[in-house]
Design a protein that fits this description.
13-stranded antiparallel beta sheet, disordered N terminus, globular, outer membrane lipoprotein receptor (LolB), chain A, mainly beta, 13 strands
């Protein structure tokens, strides 16, 4: 069973270090301010323990032709590490039973496995393939891992207004040299510290994709979840939309629900 999560205390300590040292916001460097914003966003989304959710994936090519997939996602917080997640596909028939297991780590490469029912085998996703597309979508394997603070360095750019909301614009730079991105630009609302938009720049530093989060709902009077993700690939003209519904928190999930055997048992 999962032990009491002490990570909120750790984040609170880290985010207060600069202020406790007598450094005000006006005196922070852009890097210190960017990290401070990222830590606050992490703090506000820590402590949910576990959840389940239903997701519909809509894939569109550059000609507007579309296909749909349905899946279920389970997530379990880990003390002092990234989340564990299990994705199970239910529809259409050609992907039914496909399952994806991810152990996100705060440091080092994530551990990820894909179960293919047609082959009846579990395939480990190599660390140098994390920039590849997740089941032919515009999301890469690294996009669907929990976005831990330690995976990036940060730089505050400026305050802006996005869709009528005051936001912080923060650049983040992947620590992993095998990342498919040189940098990401994030728009984070100043009131609730929710991510509203992310721009992804490829290894040539060109704009590759934009991800927009819409229709946020709050759960347990604290945790915000967007009901719609829309990822647009500017270089291919393709897009992927994720519609999230039926969130359930406190499902009683444990580590044993996320071992490799659970891939083949996922139904």
């Amino acid at each position: 069973m999962k032990t009491k999560n002490t990570f909120p205390k750790i984040i609170t300590l880290l985010s207060s270090l600069l202020l406790s040292a007598g450094v005000g916001l006006a005196d922070m460097t852009a890097e210190e301010r960017g990290l401070e914003i990222a830590l606050e966003a992490e703090l506000r989304d820590t402590g949910f323990n576990d959840n389940t959710v239903e997701v519909v994936m809509l894939l569109k090519n550059r000609h507007g032709e579309s296909s749909t997939r349905q899946m279920r996602i389970r997530t379990l917080e880990q003390e002092n590490d990234g989340d564990k997640s299990l994705v199970t596909f239910d529809h259409p028939r050609d992907v039914k039973g496909t399952a994806f297991l991810s152990y996100t780590h705060k440091e080092g490469s994530d551990d990820q496995w894909l179960y293919l029912p047609a082959l009846k085998r579990v395939k480990r996703i190599a660390s140098n393939n994390k920039s590849g597309p997740f089941v032919s979508s515009e999301f890469a394997y690294e996009d669907i891992s929990s976005q831990e603070v330690e995976k990036y360095t940060y730089k505050y750019i400026q305050d802006e207004v996005l869709d009528g909301k005051p936001v912080y614009v923060v650049e983040r730079y992947p620590v992993d040299p095998k990342s498919g991105y040189t940098r990401q630009v994030t728009w984070i609302d100043q009131e609730e510290y929710r991510t509203l938009k992310v721009e992804y720049y490829d290894r040539k530093a060109d704009l590759l994709k934009t991800l927009v989060f819409e229709d946020y709902n709050q759960y347990l009077d604290k945790y915000w979840r967007a009901n719609r993700y829309f990822m647009e690939n500017h270089q291919t003209g393709k897009s992927t939309e994720l519609a999230w519904s039926d969130y359930k928190f406190g499902a009683g999930l444990e580590d044993r629900d996320f071992d490799q055997r659970s891939l083949q048992k996922a139904r």
